[in-house]
DNA sequence: CGTTTAATACCCCAGTTGGGGTATTGTGTA
DNA sequence: TACACAATACCCCAACTGGGGTATTAAACG
């Protein structure tokens, strides 16, 4: 029996996951937390074979949580659960040492297969994610630059734009010159292949660079 | 035993919901569809006491589905399930005849209470939603205008803006003059209390006016 | 120890945006 | 019928945006 820890903020989804697995599935969720901070202590209390980690959580998101527990010396195989099909998250999750990535609109058999694969320390990608990974490395080979890797500063600029600030306001807020803000914005727009700030914000939200509400 | 129909596109969430209810809960999900279009035939095939309707679905969203089945003469009590805490959705769902509204981060007991309440044809609001409803009517009393009721045309303009179109491109796409586009955009920005198109798009996405990729 | 990259800053400039007006038409509703 | 409102269109104009450059500095990386 594979013993799983579920890190997921949506209670209803978590409840569902817990009661979903039958004895014949060979999987059981032995612990659940809505809070990334509680993860380490749960990993100590229970004998966990695999972590099921939601990416989209407020306060402490899945990728950050993963980074944190790896840093503390835990090395549990981890399956990332998300609604986002974005390469950004896949890439970040892989960098932090996740073994697998599955979308929330996957089927139960797919999830079971994913959990079994990951708990055996093999990599699992949901078919829909696989396409993205393929595209990613194909583009990477071409452009060397690796899609759209935004710097922290650039993400900061995007957040300001999304909050309705213009160049001058951003310059004041970040204590830099208006020229610099303009340069950043232009670089971001090039990287993301968009033509207006409005489209920039849309893309950023879809890719999870900006958190929702 | 309350017999429920679940309309939900995320397979994993649906699977979870199905296996979540125990006999002592007095609730069972007798049918599930990922597709709003299938709802009417399922309502005919099964004896359904309550519909659990996800709002955030591609192709045919929950509110549209609800409108469609009401139009076809079905009058099942319906509980809307969503991640959005936005007043816009609450309002639309109510207008289309939903009996209740619950967020996906509710707890299992809350969900059970909601289903029981709605199936008895009483109204149910999740506490978090209740605040919004209260705010809404309080503002409504003040301003008479009712928060930010965007016209269909205005929503169309927003979608174009989010796709990176400028006034000229939107004017061409919608076969109207550039002046008109400008007027619309200005009206929208007033209604939504934002100062830039970028912020406009952010707000629109948070309120669900624009669907996510 | 060179090379790359992020962050910073500046120049130029056409074109768009955002804010202030006003006005006509059609539709729907009180 | 009369009033309200959505959609349309136009005027003016200061300010900002987006696209084209170039360049310095410091940090990161092989």
From TrEMBL, chains A, B:
<dbReference type="GO" id="GO:0003677">
    <property type="term" value="F:DNA binding"/>
</dbReference>
<dbReference type="InterPro" id="IPR000792">
    <property type="entry name" value="Tscrpt_reg_LuxR_C"/>
</dbReference>
<feature type="domain" description="HTH luxR-type">
    <location>
        <begin position="143"/>
        <end position="208"/>
    </location>
</feature>
<feature type="domain" description="Response regulatory">
    <location>
        <begin position="3"/>
        <end position="119"/>
    </location>
</feature>
<keyword id="KW-0597">Phosphoprotein</keyword>
<dbReference type="InterPro" id="IPR039420">
    <property type="entry name" value="WalR-like"/>
</dbReference>
<dbReference type="InterPro" id="IPR001789">
    <property type="entry name" value="Sig_transdc_resp-reg_receiver"/>
</dbReference>
<dbReference type="InterPro" id="IPR016032">
    <property type="entry name" value="Sig_transdc_resp-reg_C-effctor"/>
</dbReference>
<feature type="modified residue" description="4-aspartylphosphate">
    <location>
        <position position="54"/>
    </location>
</feature>
<dbReference type="GO" id="GO:0006355">
    <property type="term" value="P:regulation of DNA-templated transcription"/>
</dbReference>
<dbReference type="InterPro" id="IPR058245">
    <property type="entry name" value="NreC/VraR/RcsB-like_REC"/>
</dbReference>
<dbReference type="Pfam" id="PF00072">
    <property type="entry name" value="Response_reg"/>
</dbReference>
<dbReference type="Pfam" id="PF00196">
    <property type="entry name" value="GerE"/>
</dbReference>
<dbReference type="InterPro" id="IPR011006">
    <property type="entry name" value="CheY-like_superfamily"/>
</dbReference>
<protein>
    <submittedName>
        <fullName>LuxR family two component transcriptional regulator</fullName>
    </submittedName>
</protein>
<dbReference type="GO" id="GO:0000160">
    <property type="term" value="P:phosphorelay signal transduction system"/>
</dbReference>
<keyword id="KW-0238">DNA-binding</keyword>
């Amino acid at each position: 029996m594979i013993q799983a820890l579920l890190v997921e903020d949506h209670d209803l989804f978590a409840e569902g996951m817990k009661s979903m697995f039958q004895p014949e599935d060979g999987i059981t969720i032995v612990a659940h937390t809505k809070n990334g901070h509680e993860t380490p202590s749960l990993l100590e209390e229970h004998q966990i074979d695999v972590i099921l980690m939601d990416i989209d959580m407020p306060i402490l998101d899945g990728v950050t949580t993963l980074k944190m527990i790896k840093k503390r010396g835990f090395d549990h195989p981890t399956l990332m659960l998300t609604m986002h099909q974005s390469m950004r998250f896949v890439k970040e999750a892989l960098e932090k040492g996740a073994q697998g990535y599955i979308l929330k609109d996957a089927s139960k058999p797919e999830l079971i297969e994913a959990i079994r694969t990951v708990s055996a320390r093999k990599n699992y990608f949901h078919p829909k994610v696989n396409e993205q990974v393929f595209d990613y490395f194909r583009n990477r080979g071409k452009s060397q630059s690796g899609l759209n890797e935004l710097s922290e500063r650039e993400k900061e600029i995007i957040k300001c734009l999304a909050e309705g600030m213009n160049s001058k306001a951003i310059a004041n807020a970040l204590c830099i010159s208006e020229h610099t803000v303009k340069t950043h914005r232009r670089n971001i727009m090039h990287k993301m292949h968009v033509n207006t700030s409005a489209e920039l914000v849309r893309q950023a939200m879809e890719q999870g660079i900006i958190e929702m509400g």
